[in-house]
Design goal:
Blueprint (H helix, E strand, L loop, with lengths): L17 H5 L4 H13 L7 H18 L10 H6 L6
Length: 86
């Protein structure tokens, strides 16, 4: 049975701003986050999604300036591009 936390002190994590958290992640996570959000349909996104996108892009620009964000292909695009053989 899962115990419900009784107070904020019982949580296993400390909430922190997205910008602070993104400073701790690897580049691959930033790139994948940006690619997934850009591939998501507009009507499936909300304010939190766009805040995550803005934080990821901001951290990329902090690390690399105006360097282009690499493009990540999903599995379907890789099949169409011939990268994956079925």
């Amino acid at each position: 049975m899962i115990k419900k936390p009784k107070s904020p002190k019982d949580f296993n994590y400390v909430p922190q701003p997205l910008g602070t958290w993104f400073k701790t992640v690897e580049d691959v996570y930033i790139i994948e986050t940006i690619a997934k959000i850009k591939a998501t349909r507009k009507w499936d996104c909300n304010a939190a999604t766009y805040a995550l996108l803005a934080a990821a892009i901001s951290e990329w620009e902090t690390r690399y300036g105006s360097k282009k964000i690499p493009v990540v292909l999903d599995d379907q695009e890789m099949v169409l591009a011939g990268e994956i053989k079925i």
